[in-house]
């Protein structure tokens, strides 16, 4: 018995396999048949669900692809149609003579559609493309064109203000005399009746605060004067000015007229909007301190000339009511028809103690303003005058 046990535990009596079998855990009992069937059924269901899901995904991919290709084709067809329409253009130079009117405020698209209706261009797209390609500005007016013109040729004419007829333009900063002169050049308009009205007292047209003068009371813009009465045109200009002043919040009464006076002086004195609010502050400061305004542009207006044409004798002429070198306060009337920017500057002057300013460089419009005590500002003013003279001499 002892030998048998010794032999059993010896290397000779048992190998690695014998040891492994001896110490291994007992085997698990086999699963029941019902459990095995359930397991196989779960596996089968999982495989079926996976297959169905894959089939659904495949079908969706096909459907989306078909729909997408259809939409892509439709988009390409539509784009092709648009592109074809865009390049539809007459070769020019045109056939029958026609007149065509561009109204104020019309954009290139609206003008293009009207040109197509008049059979002047073949497609609105060709016209708008031609406008965009040269970044053209279309002017209001009545133009001489032809039917069946090349779109680019039409743009060349409609962007040439000298070819516009039937419209009168009032530009910001223009004097009443300039507007009257421009009216004389408009064909088919009674310029004499227009001039007579503007030189009258404005009865039935001007507001009371205008004091019977149209200067400053014409709103800048382009006005259709073709086959229209002069009185109707003038009333349109004044009504448009009143509406704009109301929109900008300009007080009514005498203060409204004063705002127009200040704005018109500021616009005449400097040629850059960046200085308007400083100039209007200078005007306010000088009035508050009891000083004369000393503006050459007002003196020139009273004489009907340009400021550059003034003589020393004219600058000291007390008989000129617009001579703000010798007469204190604002001018009897505005000295031009100021634009929105100058009016806004008159309403809200920039804060500052400036009393003098000099445009030291006429080529760039650079303007310098004095600051400090009165003595300091007088010294700065003389310095700026010398700078102006130096620049002017160099320019000549």
UniProtKB/TrEMBL annotation:
Transmembrane regions listed in the UniProt entry: 48-69
Protein's UniProt keywords contain Transmembrane helix: yes
EC number: 4.2.2.29
Subcellular localization, as worded in the UniProt entry: Cell membrane
Region Disordered, residue ranges: 1-39
Site keyed Important for catalytic activity: positions: 269
Keywords, in A-Z order: Cell membrane, Cell wall biogenesis/degradation, Lyase, Membrane, Transmembrane, Transmembrane helix
Catalyzed reactions per annotation: a peptidoglycan chain = a peptidoglycan chain with N-acetyl-1,6-anhydromuramyl-[peptide] at the reducing end + a peptidoglycan chain with N-acetylglucosamine at the non-reducing end
Basic and acidic residues bias (residue ranges): 1-20
Record membrane topology: Single-pass membrane protein
InterPro entries referenced in this protein's UniProt entry, alphabetically: MLTG-like (IPR003770)
Enzyme kind, highest EC tier: lyase
Alphabetized Gene3D superfamilies for the sequence: Endolytic murein transglycosylase
Family: Belongs to the transglycosylase MltG family.
Function: Functions as a peptidoglycan terminase that cleaves nascent peptidoglycan strands endolytically to terminate their elongation.
Protein name: Endolytic murein transglycosylase
Originating organism: Bifidobacterium amazonense
């Amino acid at each position: 018995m002892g030998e048998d046990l010794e032999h059993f535990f010896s290397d000779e009596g048992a190998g690695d396999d014998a040891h492994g079998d001896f110490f291994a855990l007992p085997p698990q009992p086999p699963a029941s048949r019902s459990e095995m069937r359930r397991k196989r059924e779960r596996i089968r269901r999982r495989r079926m669900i996976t297959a169905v899901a894959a089939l659904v995904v495949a079908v969706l991919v096909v459907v989306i692809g078909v729909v997408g290709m259809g939409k892509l084709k439709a988009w390409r067809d539509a784009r092709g149609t648009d592109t074809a329409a865009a390049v539809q253009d007459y070769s020019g130079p045109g056939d029958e003579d026609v007149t065509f009117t561009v109204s104020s405020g019309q954009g290139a698209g609206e003008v293009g559609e009207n040109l197509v209706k008049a059979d002047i261009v073949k497609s609105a797209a060709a016209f708008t493309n031609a406008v965009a390609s040269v970044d053209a500005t279309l002017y209001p007016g009545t133009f001489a064109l032809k039917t069946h013109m090349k779109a680019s040729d039409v743009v060349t004419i409609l962007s040439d203000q000298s070819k516009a007829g039937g419209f009168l333009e009032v530009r910001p900063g223009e004097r009443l005399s300039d507007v009257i002169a421009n009216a004389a050049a408009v064909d088919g308009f009674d310029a004499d009746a227009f001039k007579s009205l503007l030189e009258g007292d404005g009865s039935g047209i001007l507001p009371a605060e205008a004091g019977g003068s149209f200067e400053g009371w014409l709103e800048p813009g382009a006005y259709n004067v073709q086959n229209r009465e002069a009185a109707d045109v003038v009333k349109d200009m004044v009504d448009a000015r009143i509406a704009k002043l109301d929109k900008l919040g300009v007080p009514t009464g005498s203060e409204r007229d004063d705002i127009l006076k200040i704005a018109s002086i500021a616009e005449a004195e400097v040629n850059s909007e960046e200085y308007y609010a400083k100039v209007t502050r200078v005007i306010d400061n000088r009035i508050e301190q009891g000083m004369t305004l000393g503006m050459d542009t007002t003196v020139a207006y009273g004489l009907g000339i340009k400021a550059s044409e003034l003589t020393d004798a004219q600058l000291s002429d007390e008989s000129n009511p617009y001579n703000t070198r010798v007469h204190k306060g604002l001018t009897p009337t505005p000295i031009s028809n100021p634009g929105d920017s100058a009016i806004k500057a008159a309403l809200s002057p920039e804060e500052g103690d400036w009393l003098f300013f000099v445009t030291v460089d006429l080529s760039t419009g650079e303007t310098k303003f004095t600051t400090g005590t009165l003595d300091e500002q007088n010294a700065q003013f003389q310095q700026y005058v010398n700078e102006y003279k130096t620049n002017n001499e160099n320019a000549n």
